[in-house]
Structures are given as C-alpha cells and as structure tokens.
Design goal:
Helices cover about 45% and strands about 15% of the residues. By secondary structure, it is α/β, with parallel strands linked by helices. It has a six-stranded antiparallel β-sheet with strand order 3-2-1-6-5-4, with helices on both faces. Helix 2 packs antiparallel against helix 4. The longest helix is centred in the first third of the chain and has 29 residues.
C-alpha cells in the first residue's frame, strides 16, 4: 500500500510541482521499479511534469505521441498496458534512466496507463523496471489504483489554484495558464525561480492595456514572451502582428507601419494598409524597436498619443485600437542620451519595462531546454535515441551562453550532426560528449577559475588584524574579482556567489563597493 504521506499530501496545501514530485516518488517506491513518469498531454505531445529515476533533462523533452508507439498504445487504452521484456517497440526513455545513462537498457519491463480529468484525456503515467520480475500479476490492478490517485492529485492541485486565483480576484488559475501554454515553437520551457517569477509578472501585466518593453540580450526569446503576453491578454482572439524593425529599410518603414494610398510614391499602384491597421483590435509587436529611424519614431509617438495613424499620402487620419509590445537588446536610455532615440517615445514605450533574464542566470533550465532540443533533433535526424553524457551536462551548465537559448539550440543541433559524422549509428543510443558540443573551453576555464578563486594566505610576519577587518577584506576582494569576471553584472555576481541579490547590494554598500 502507499505510504500515508502521499495520502496526507492530498489534504495539505502544497505547490502543484511538489505534490506531483511526491506522487511519482511514492509510486516508484510502491512498485519498486526503476523510474516513474507523470506526463501531461499538450496538443500532440506528452510533456513530463514530474519524474523519478529519470535524467533531469527529461522534464524538458516533448514526446510527439505519433513518433512513439508505446505512448500511442497507452493513450489508446483506458486500462493498464504492459510491454513485456523483449517488446520490439522502442522505449522513449531508452538511455534516460539515471543508473543507465547513455547505455542501451537491459531487458526490462514497462507499464503505462492513461489519465483522465473530468472525462477528458489528461495524460499518462509510465513505469519502467530494469528486469522482468518487478511487475507481477497484480501489477495491472495496482497501476489502475495508482492512476486514480494520480488523477486525484492533479484534480486537487487544480482546485487549489482556482481557489487561490478567486481569492486574489482573478478568474484564471495558475493551472489553466499552464494548460493554455501550448507546445511547440511558442512554448517557454524552464522551472527556475527567476523564470517562474517572470512568467507570473507577465501574466499579471498581460491583463492590462499598458505598453510593455521587453529588455534582454540577443537570443533570450523575447518574441516568445511577447506571444505569451498577447495570448494571456483580453485581446488574445485578435491578431498579433510582428514587425522586425531592424529589417525595415528607412525608405519603406513609414509605409510598412502606417500604410499608403495609391500614388503616394513611385510604385504605389493601389491603397495598402500598414501593420497598425492589420493589428487593429489586437497587439503590435515591435521587435528591435531601437532600430527605427528617427523620422518614423516621431510618427509612432503621435500614434501612441492619440490612437490615430495616417497612411502615407492620405489626407485624413484613421483611428486604430492597438496594444504595443516592444523589444530591444539595446540600452535605449543610452541611445536617448546620445540623441539616437526620442526620449518622449522611450517613456511611452517603457511604461512597463520587463527584463528577460539571460540563460546563464536560469540555473538548470539549460538542461530542460537541452532536453527539448535533443528530442527535436532525434526526430528530425531519425535517431533511435539522443542523450547527453553526465560530462556533457556539466559542460552545458558551466558555459556562460553569450548567445543564450538560440546558441544552445544551435550547439545541440551541431553536436548531433557531429556525432553522426564521427560514426555514430542512428539505430543505436547516441550519447553526446563534451567534444561533440565544442563549447569554448577558454570561457569554461575562466568561469571555473572564478568559482574556485582563493585569496592568498596571510604571511606569518604580517601584522595581526581583527577578524572583522580580515573577513571584510576577503569579501571585498572576492566581490571585486567576481564583478570583473561578470563584466559588472551584479545579478550574475549574486548567482555565482550564491547570494540573494538584495543582500549582495547591501553588503557591497557596507564594504564601500557601491
């Protein structure tokens, strides 16, 4: 029988992720098997939401159901399904079990069962064992009872979140927000505290009409966050129009944004609406807004002020109802100071600025994202299985990711192709090593050196100082060294020194560093 603690969790107020993690741990203990996965159906994919006994990067994978016959079989049945030892159907978890990383699984036993919530297919519960003696004749009934418990856990979490949302005056719960996230290109993957805090902030501001300015380095995925803002807003049924301002030639920028009438310029053979009219009632996403010419900035400001646009060559203005989301990887306040960006437009666009954290500040999210890209490349290149070795995982976590998520995607894609070019067989489990990733070893060594930096020992003939002075001196030197390595990025310094950012700032002020 299950331990009383999992049953107690059903009546205790816990975060959904914690309750689900405890569930899979309890089920694994109950069956004595090698791994358990709780997967949620999201479109045509099964997405792991809690695992035990599987590699951490499994949580970032998105298993396209049609590509995995075992998952198709599980979802097609309302009862427990068993894949006995010797089954020829490929296992989606090959090489992912913690104790068998990167190796073909031994003869093993697998079971699974579909999960339903309010009469609708919600997902699946999967069990893997290392040998064929774990699941006995009663295992099917036990798994059916486990499925009832799993469905109760999911239902309890959803009810709790709906109650919390109602208490907060919102009609949308955290679970529903996640359920609507959608899979594929528009999905934001990660579980780090900094990312979850950001997503919560975006969901709150999405319900307003405030202009939002997304700030962040190249490759952090600003477009995905813009899409989430639109999707969570009251305008979600209206268009989201994306404009890449960096790709607009200065001579055509005005026409692209505001439209033109026939004869407005050479080649204008007919009236043409601009992007603002296309986005009417919805959202206009101005990507790389810092690249807009100054002449267009003035007309954009007028539109933001009075809600009117005027087609190029037209006499009369037109009313538009558009919410603006802008994004840039530039320091707009510096461009304002240098006269390259209008101060009044900057203040209009940055009513609600939102910094997007770089990948290096998101902890183990790099492994979840890597898992997603591994699964995409496995399907794209026809691998039986594509995995990371423990050393490759360490290399990914140690790298500083100047190109952020986009760079990670390219690194994984190149590594998969490099493995094939060096003789890896697509019919086997392919394990990527650090040499396949080909990351900048110099940067990795620099980071490791910074993390392991030691203050020189005090010579015995040096005058004695108080402990407080010695500790302050050590802290001051360590912060200075780390700040230099992080190129003045205090948030990165806090992460490397494992300090709360606010505490680091207070300490730096006390030490005279700020």
């Amino acid at each position: 029988m299950f331990d009383d603690s999992i049953l107690l969790d059903l009546t205790s107020e816990l975060p959904r992720s914690v309750r689900q993690e405890r569930l899979v741990v309890a089920i694994r203990t109950y069956f004595g098997c090698g791994a358990v996965g709780l997967l949620k159906l999201d479109g045509d994919c099964l997405c792991p939401v809690a695992v035990d006994g599987l590699a951490h990067e499994t949580l970032g994978r998105r298993f396209v159901v049609a590509q995995h016959p075992r998952l198709v079989t599980i979802l097609s049945s309302r009862s427990a399904v068993r894949f006995e030892p010797g089954s020829l159907l490929p296992d989606p978890y090959d090489g992912l079990l913690d104790s068998q990383r990167g190796m073909p699984l031994p003869v093993h036993d697998c079971m699974g069962i579909s999960l339903y919530l309010e009469g609708r297919l919600w997902g699946a519960l999967t069990l893997d064992a290392f040998d064929g003696c774990v699941f006995d004749e009663q295992a099917g009934d036990k798994l059916a009872h486990s499925a009832i418990l799993a469905e109760a856990v999911v239902r309890m979490s959803r009810l709790e979140e709906e109650i919390r949302a109602l208490r907060a005056g919102s009609l949308v719960s955290e679970t529903l927000l996640v359920d609507e996230q959608g899979s594929g290109e528009g999905e934001i993957i990660g579980q780090s505290a900094i990312l979850l805090k950001l997503l919560h902030e975006l969901d709150v501001v999405a319900n307003s009409e405030l202009p939002v300015l997304l700030l962040g380095e190249t490759g952090v995925g600003k477009e995905l966050f813009a899409r989430r803002l639109h999707r969570k807003s009251p305008r979600h049924n209206a268009p989201l129009i994306h404009v890449n301002c960096a790709a607009l030639p200065e001579s055509l920028a005005e026409s692209e944004l505001f439209g033109h009438v026939k004869g407005a310029f050479s080649g204008a053979m007919s009236d043409r609406p601009g992007r603002f009219e296309a986005a009417n009632g919805g959202t206009l996403f101005l990507d790389e807004v810092g690249e807009l010419p100054l002449t267009v900035q003035a007309k954009l400001l007028r539109t933001l002020q009075n809600g009117e646009i005027q087609r190029l060559g037209a006499d009369q203005p037109r009313k538009v109802d558009v919410r603006i989301i802008a994004a840039t990887n530039r320091q707009l306040h510096e461009q304002v100071r240098e006269g390259q960006f209008r101060a009044d437009l900057y203040h209009r666009l940055s009513v609600y600025p939102v910094p997007i954290p770089p990948l290096r500040e998101r902890g183990n999210d790099v492994l979840l994202l890597a898992g997603n890209f591994l699964e995409l490349n496995r399907a794209r290149l026809g691998f039986r299985s594509l995995r990371l070795s423990p050393a490759a995982e360490q290399a990914l976590c140690s790298y500083d990711w100047p190109g952020n998520v986009r760079e990670l995607e390219h690194v994984i894609s190149r590594a998969a192709l490099r493995a094939v070019s060096r003789g890896a067989l697509r019919t086997e489990i392919v394990t990527l090593e650090p040499e396949h990733l080909a990351l900048d070893a110099t940067i990795i060594r620099t980071i490791n050196k910074a993390e392991n930096a030691l203050i020189p020992e005090i010579e015995s003939n040096e005058p004695a100082v108080s402990l407080k002075i010695a500790v302050d001196g050590y802290q001051r030197q360590l912060i200075r060294q780390t700040l230099e390595i992080c190129q003045g990025n205090w948030a990165n310094v806090a992460r490397r020194l494992e300090l709360d950012p606010s505490n680091l700032h207070k300490l730096a002020k006390r030490l005279g560093l700020k």
